[in-house]
Amino acid sequence: MAATRKYLKTAEMAFSAFFSDGPLVLLDYLMRLLRVMILLALWRLVLDSRGAGATDDPGLSLGALLTYTLIAQVFAPQLDVTTRIEDAMWEGTLTGRFLQPMGLVANFTSELLGTWAMVFLTFSAPLLLLAPALGVDPRPASPLHGLLFVASLALAATLGVAVDFIFCGIAGAIGQNIWLIKYVRTGLMTILSGVLLPLQFLPWGLGDVFAWLPFASMASAPLRVYTGTGDAAWLIPLQAAWCVALWPVASWIWSANRERLAFHGG
Amino acid sequence: MAASVAGAHRLVRRWLFFGRLDALWMIRDLGSFAGYAFSEGLKVLAAIATMLLLSERFDGVGPWTQPQVVFLLGFAVTANGMIDDLFGYNVAYISRRIGRGQLDHVLMQPQPMPLTLLTEGFSPAAGLPVLGTGLLLLAWGIGGTAAPASPLWFALLALNLGASCVVILAFAYAVGSLAFWAPRAAEEINSSSWSLITQLRAFPLDGVRPALLGGLLSVVPAGFAAWYPCRALLGLDHWRPSVVVTPLAAVAFALVALWIFRTGMAHYLDTGSQRYLSYGHRR
Amino acid sequence: MATVASAAPLISLVGVWKTYRQRQRSESFFGQLRSLFRPEIKHVAALRGVDLTVARGEIVAYAGPNGAGKSTTVKLCAGLLAPTRGTVRVMGFDPVKERVRFVSRIGVVFGQRTELYWDLPVASSFEWKRVVWDVPRERYERMRGFVRELLALDDFFHTAPRELSLGQRMRADLGLALLHEPEILFLDEPTLGLDVLAKRNILSCIKDLNRERHLTVLVTSHDMAELEQLAGRIVMIHRGSIAFDGDFGRLRREAAARRVLTLETGGATAPSLNGAELVGSEGGRHEYVFDASRVTIAALLDQAAAQARVLDVETHQLPIDDVIAGIYERWLNDATRGSEDVAAGEVRPPRQQEARVAGQVQVGDGHQQDGE
Predict the structure, then answer these.
(1) Which of A110, A257, B80, C208 could anchor a disulfide with A7, C-beta 3.0 to 4.6 Å?
(2) In a mutagenesis test of the A interface, which of B42, B51, B181, B187 is the best target, namely the one with the most A β-carbons within 10 Å?
(3) Do the Cβ atoms of B110 and C100 come within 8 Å?
(4) What residue ranges in C73-207 does DSSP mark as E strands?
(5) Alpha-carbon span B2 to A139, nearest angstrom
(6) CA B22: distance to chain centroid?
(7) Three-class SS state of A120
(8) CA angle, residues C83, C89, C94, in degrees to nearest 5
(9) Over A182-195, what HEC string results?
(10) pLDDT, tens digit, for every residue of C253-304?
């Protein structure tokens, strides 16, 4: 218990700090809600407007697609993990983290969990409750799919932390501006992860190819498990395999470039 | 008249100077330049990929044919590129300048603030990838649609592009002005507002409920970023005066943003900034 | 320290108040949530009825403890802030309302900020200044040559600031501020973080500019020795009010006639001197601080000679930093004990409003009301 106290305290600080800057954070939520509503309208437009003679299988029913989109927003922080490493590298305060008596990963992850708890309470849970009013069924495809989703989401978040460390580590190692790396990552996530556009909707079989990449394991995999539109029997092991493959990479990048990273930015 | 000519001369002189500075910055370091070019390219691709791929997969989106979707994307990216070109260095992300206490740097310059904001962010080299991509997409879209493509139509296209830029910039300044009252909390509020506009601008909003659509043409004017002016220009909106709605909206939004910003400036002169961060200041 | 001054006031602050609102935040989650809807606001008066004039050609040191109101005063003078009450006039301008015309005639350097473009050579930033300040080409080239020589910028003129040391960057910033030949220079902690040599260079440049070009300078700093070298006049501000306005000599006299006496004796034991406080003793050298208005050196030496063999004697004024530290400490103690008893001649913490008479001690106002 004593050993975990410092992590809990770190999480608590992040949780408490959420409203320290006033209610403007709620404006951010409003914007995210708008985005959800527009995406839902877009899917209705795309699928409803297909003529009666359309023969190709879109790969996703309208109901599943709406659920997919909603859940992608509910669990957005877990599906596209962004720790505070970027901020610390930009501000040059990473050194301070090295001076704290806990591992870097545990440090940033504790903070993340505190923030996630607050976001879930203030945005995700209300959005789930609002789903019927938006014409969306928020339930998983089945109770089993719901359980599998928990495992899949945990793996996705774990993988997301590793990818975050990798990208930030590379930025520090090559001395690049952290925000350029952020743009690269955001671009890759938008195109390859399926968080915005389900991979099944990509033309030319691109979706089948992208599904094997780690970005898809971070977002598309848990969403497909939830909506029952993907086979959990291979999606979840693939996520686990990427975790096993990428965590050592993240560890190596940070160990090999420790000095450069510690003094990056500011 | 002489004052206007002198003013225009000052403006152009500063644009030329800041353009040169921007080019110098781009080529100062090959590694940074390569990194920048790559990330900008990816950013543009990400902005258009979703809709492009969707329209390819379903042969258009709703009432929009595939070329029309390309035109919509081209319009959105071109407007984005124009703003990147003219309002770089956090001029468009004004909440950062305000929240970080960097407005003093603007106040210490012996020129009206509008002149500083209109010129200091001029970055034609840095903004070229986005603007260039947008213009290519526009050309591709025009080629595939049944647009009249007459001189008058191109003039209306230019007018609507400019108006679209004014609308979204006005929105950014209105939202970003919150940083006058909450510098720490609202420092990154423009990141959120730009993210919202950037993500929504490429989507056709035809299926959106009327109440929400009204909001997207007023409170959060993402509808004017590309969708509404493109509908008007492509004749998807059968109401002929629709081609001047975006320019009129631009005037209205600009006036509102100006009022909010000036109110914020008066508050700033009273309170000053208790914090200072140099991030993004001339970097 | 001589400065070149002429009669007409260039800077004039009359009855200036400046009040800030500070939001108080709780450390607990529920406290933070509560403060969302019922924020606790504290009003802080950074300046309380400040009257200050600076004549053309003066170098004025503006000193005070942290949070006294120094930077606020500089920002008011530079037009970055408007006063809550009172008037600020610089060169006859209202710095806020006539900002554009006004700032073209002043230079401002904040020690913790730079105006330089981070990734471009210093030369590019100088070009930027020329364009934006509309400095005529001939004047620009003349001043560029002047500041390059004065501040020894040639070695790094074509280097980007990100690769310069702090001292080099400060010199470049100072050069940038001088390019348009300002009539007044506001320097807010210009030597913060600089080493001794770099500080000396900067101070020397400022003195040269004042002497050769009648440049008026208002400088804030915590380094008293530096200010004493630079300025002929020191204005001390405490908790928003002027506590002292005069020269350094008078400050020493009025603060206390404290001196340092160093004795070298044959033994390690320091003699006990009535009227002097032992502050250090090492290997036969013993250092004392005493008030020369209350006990003479001769009396102390008599006492010392009666107790030990005195081999050497040294006496000098207390370093100005120690004088100021003593003043700040007394202000703090007076604020704590709320005492009205202040020894005659002592520099007072601001309590009583008195009319300003040239060359006399001015103290500030202890108004009760805030929230103006």
Answers:
(1) A110
(2) B42
(3) yes
(4) 85-90, 106-110, 184-188
(5) 69
(6) 19
(7) helix
(8) 75
(9) HHHHHHHHHHHCCC
(10) 766 677 899 999 988 899 999 999 898 888 899 999 888 888 999 999 999 9
